[in-house]
Amino acid sequence: MDPHARPDPVRLKVCIVGASGKLGQYMVKHALDRGYQVVGVCREESVGKLDAFKGRMTVMAGATDDRNVIARAVAGCDGVLTVLVPRGVHGYSSGTAQAVLDHARPEARLVFSCGWHISRDGHDVYSLKLKALVKIAGPLAKLARFADLGDQVEACRRIFASNTRWTMVRGSDLQEGDSQGLPVWSRHVGDPILASNLTRRVDFALFMVDALTNDQLVQEAPAIVGCRTPSALAHPATGAGAR
Ligand SMILES: NC(=O)c1ccc[n+]([C@@H]2O[C@H](COP(=O)([O-])OP(=O)(O)OC[C@H]3O[C@@H](n4cnc5c(N)ncnc54)[C@H](OP(=O)(O)O)[C@@H]3O)[C@@H](O)[C@H]2O)c1
After folding, report:
1. Has residue 123 got a pLDDT over 70?
2. 13-241: which CATH architecture?
3. Whose CA is nearest to atom 31 of ligand 1?
4. Separation between Cα atoms, residue 77 and residue 11, nearest integer Å
5. In terms of C-beta density within 10 A (0-12 exposed, 13-18 middle, 19 or more buried), how is residue 13 classed?
6. Which residue(s) pair with 60 in the sheet?
7. 117 with 103: CB under 8 angstroms?
8. Which of these, 16, 26, 104, 181, is most buried using a 10 Å CB contact count?
9. Above 60 in pLDDT, residue 95?
């Protein structure tokens, strides 16, 4: 045996909850590119959206807040990547988060997605536009029974209070396009480095997958922004957001 041979890279087993969405599909691709074993959970009617990955991942059909589906999907996983969406008005986000918190292995890395509107400690400074969006569009979406932002807040409250190895990745406004690289981050919205408020969706997914192996992000709620945006270039990451 060659004494200088490198050990095989660790082949993590990861579950992606909400795998068929735009963010989910990018996460599947990044995870497969890293050689990880991937289990994806998505709604029955969305299974076809994952056809491009057929034979390279396991797909479990079901609602992401179905505790039985989640229990089976996360069994034996080293990490769980969860797309938290506040769809409907029946606790979809909090149900999904609770199922993951309850059924993932205690030592698993749990990485969740949400937007800048979620605050961990109340020290984020928001633009008028974002405040108005939450104050006006939030209640309207609930009235139309389309989405319940308050339930996503509740989901995040439970995650922040848990003693699991969680990371809450808070996305800025998103755009499509080729990867620009790993986004930079800061603890608080309002910090100058985040001012550009734009991240490529493919890079949001990259940050989520990368967080699985970045222990500096355990029990952190990084607010992210694209690494090539003007604010990121003008304020190189130091301190918490530096890698
Ligand atoms: N959009 C933004 O501008 C933005 C900005 C910042 C952060 N974020 C965060 O990014 C994450 C992904 O957001 P996204 O907007 O980019 O969406 P996305 O990746 O397309 O994901 C949407 C998810 O919602 C599911 N979904 C759609 N309709 C549903 C329904 N009626 N019932 C249950 N689930 C349903 C989708 O599943 P199917 O594939 O089954 O439809 C998919 O998993 C979220 O955590 C969000 O908070 C988004």
Report:
1. yes
2. 3-Layer(aba) Sandwich (3.40)
3. 87
4. 11
5. middle
6. 41
7. no
8. 16
9. yes
Ligand 1 pocket, residue 21 CB under 6 Å: yes
Q: What is the mean pLDDT of residues 155-165?
A: 98
83 — phi, psi (to 5°)?
Answer: -85, 110
Instruction: Let me know how long the chain is.
Output: 243
- d(C-alpha 53, C-alpha 36), whole Å: 13
C-alpha–C-alpha distance, residues 85 and 87, integer Å: 6
> Where is pLDDT greater, at 147 or 49?
49
Listed in sequence order, the residues at least 6 apart from 125 whose beta carbon sits closer than 8 Å to its beta carbon are: 188, 189, 190
Model confidence at 178: pLDDT above 90: yes
Q: Which of 86, 158, 127, 97 is nearest to 231 (CA)?
A: 127
d(CA 100, CA 79): 11
State whether the beta carbon of 24 lies less than 6 angstroms from ligand 1.
yes
Residue 84 CA to ligand 1 center (angstroms) comes to 7
Q: Kind of pairing, strands 109-115 and 13-17?
A: unpaired
Does ligand 1 lie within 6 Å of residue 241's CB atom? no
